[in-house]
């Protein structure tokens, strides 16, 4: 049996957070603490999902968040911790006060991977790369960095909450076609010749 949703999402606001919502969330947590995120939105007078409130607070509004670019010391610490812990971003974030796990993960994928590749190191194993591995890893890191930056931009526009993926657009095939996933524009097979008395006539011959 799955866990019940944290709120009735059809009655909540979606999209970017407003300044008024930010101030209301900050004022409530200053007085009452974080508490239970499932019940916090209603208690704070916010028409938001509990998960959205938690992400907004943890990633944007916390007073102890560290703003600005990562320092060289932080870069080296992240590299050293990643070689020991792998992709356990929450554990890594615990060693960098003021930095969030999501922030560190995005920074790793968009910056530190390229830094390690420029040093001739595999960002997954932290071992020296061969020439073939280096070319493949450079291409992978560049492609992944573009995806991560676009995803983070969409998250910022929605107040830090995950953005649902759009539903795939159904592609309708020709009438009577059993394969509804045929792409439009494909040539269709010629129509079957008419039948007469249960016998299929040769193509081009009309029934008498």
From TrEMBL:
Keywords: DNA-binding, Nucleus, Repeat, Repressor, Transcription, Transcription regulation. Pfam families: Myb_DNA-binding. Residues 120-208 are annotated as: Disordered. It is found in: Nucleus. CDD domains: SANT. One of its GO terms (cellular component) is nucleus. Its main location: nucleus. It comes from Aegilops tauschii subsp. strangulata. The lineage of its organism: Eukaryota, Viridiplantae, Streptophyta, Embryophyta, Tracheophyta. This is Uncharacterized protein.
């Amino acid at each position: 049996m799955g866990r019940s949703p944290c709120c009735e999402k059809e009655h909540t606001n979606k999209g970017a957070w407003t300044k008024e919502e930010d101030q209301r969330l900050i004022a409530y947590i200053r007085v009452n603490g974080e508490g239970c995120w499932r019940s916090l939105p209603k208690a704070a007078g916010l028409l938001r999902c509990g998960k959205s409130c938690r992400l907004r607070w943890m990633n944007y509004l916390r007073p102890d968040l560290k703003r600005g670019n990562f320092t060289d010391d932080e870069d080296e610490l992240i590299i050293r911790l990643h070689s020991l812990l792998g992709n356990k971003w929450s554990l890594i974030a615990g060693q960098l006060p003021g930095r969030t796990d999501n922030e560190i993960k995005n920074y790793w994928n968009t910056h530190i991977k390229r830094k390690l590749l420029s040093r001739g190191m595999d960002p997954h194993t932290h071992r020296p790369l061969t020439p073939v591995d280096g070319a493949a890893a450079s291409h992978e890191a560049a492609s992944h960095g573009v995806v991560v930056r676009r995803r983070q931009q969409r998250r910022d526009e929605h107040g830090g909450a995950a953005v649902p993926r759009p539903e795939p657009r159904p592609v309708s095939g020709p009438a009577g076609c059993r394969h509804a996933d045929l792409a439009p524009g494909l040539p269709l097979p010629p129509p079957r010749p008419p039948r007469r008395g249960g016998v299929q006539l040769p193509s081009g011959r009309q029934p008498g």
